[in-house]
Amino acid sequence: MAKTAQEKADLKAERIYEKTHKKRYRTRPGDVVFNVLNYLVFTLFTIACIFPFYYLFINTISDNDLVIKGLINFVPKGIHLDNYKSLLNVSDLSNAFIVSISRTILGTALMVAASGFVGYLVTKQEMWGRKFWYRFLIITMYFNAGLIPWFLNMQMLGLTNTFWAYIVPGIVAPYNIILVKTYIESIPGELEESAEMDGATYMTVFRKIIWPLSKPILATIAIFGAVGHWNSFTDSLILMQSAPNLYTLQHRLYIYLNQASNLSALMESGGQVSESVIKSALSGKVIKYTISMVTVIPILVVYPFMQRYFEKGIMLGAVKG
Fold it and tell me: Cα(121)–Cα(202) distance, rounded to whole angstroms?
């Protein structure tokens, strides 16, 4: 009987709390207006960000004649996947895709490994010349010799017209090292001390303790590195002048864009252009859209799976300076 009375008292207290809570936090008309405007603004902003990718996509799967005439704006018509299949027949495109994938995977892996290890080393007070090397890394973020000295330096190092020009310069990334260092300093030092008391070396501590616990920040810098490698085309444009077999996918897209623009300018100026050239220019527009979509898809696919690590790594890495 006492138990039933207690349950009734608890239920009564819960109802009183709910009534008080609802009355205290009752939604006001101003709050409703703010929420509506807030959702409206962010919905429009989201649409503005997504629409360019949607526009590209519907133009790559729609009827090519309608695309050339500019009749595809919001709804795809004559849906097909022939454009993506035809990319396999575009000269050197598959090779450029392999080059971009290879540099992205290898370059990102080496950059993450180097950033993790160097970031761990500069947290050790007993490291020889620690302050000097750390400041030396930071200084490189603020001083840049310029494009021409960079090219001459790469040429003297023998890194022109070779695949390693994509990999070697990006292995040591000062900003990523700073992020990793800051994150590692937030890890309790007692973990390392207990391992060192058991006889663990620096490499053992790094491999079995620091590396597994640093996955969020390592995933974060992996996103930075992968996006940078995938989107880069300046190094391919400048350093691979005599090695077209090492052109990246972005560089190939740049070439097709230039070709389409030049042909369009020639036709607008009233120059003599054969029918076959006009046809190739118009089909180049479709190829341009399709290649643009192909270059975007890998990042769009990978980023959602890495986003939770990205957010966690940035927040935890910012706890200590």
Answer: 9
Give the pLDDT confidence of 18-63 residue by residue, as tens digits: 665 555 556 677 778 888 899 999 999 999 988 888 888 888 888 8
Report the distance separating Cα 289 and Cα 56, nearest Å: 6
Task: Give the Cα separation of 285 and 99 in Å (integer).
Answer: 24
d(CA 218, CA 193): 23
What tokens were used for 286? Answer: 């479709």
Q: How far is CA 81 from CA 66, 74, 199, in A?
A: 15, 18, 60
For residues 74 and 51, what is the distance between their CA atoms, to the nearest angstrom? 9
Q: What is the pLDDT of residues 1-12, one digit of tens each?
A: 445 666 666 676
List alpha helices for 145-214, DSSP H: 147-156, 174-185, 189-197, 202-205, 211-213
Predicted model pTM: 0.72
Q: Please, is 101 exposed, middle or buried when counting C-beta atoms within 10 Å of its C-beta (0-12, 13-18, 19+)?
A: middle
| Terminal Cα-to-Cα distance of the chain (whole angstroms) | 61
Residues 216 and 312: beta-carbon distance below 8 Å: yes
**Residue pLDDT, tens place only, 79-93:** 888 777 777 766 677
Q: Cα–Cα distance between 154 and 146 in angstroms, integer?
A: 12
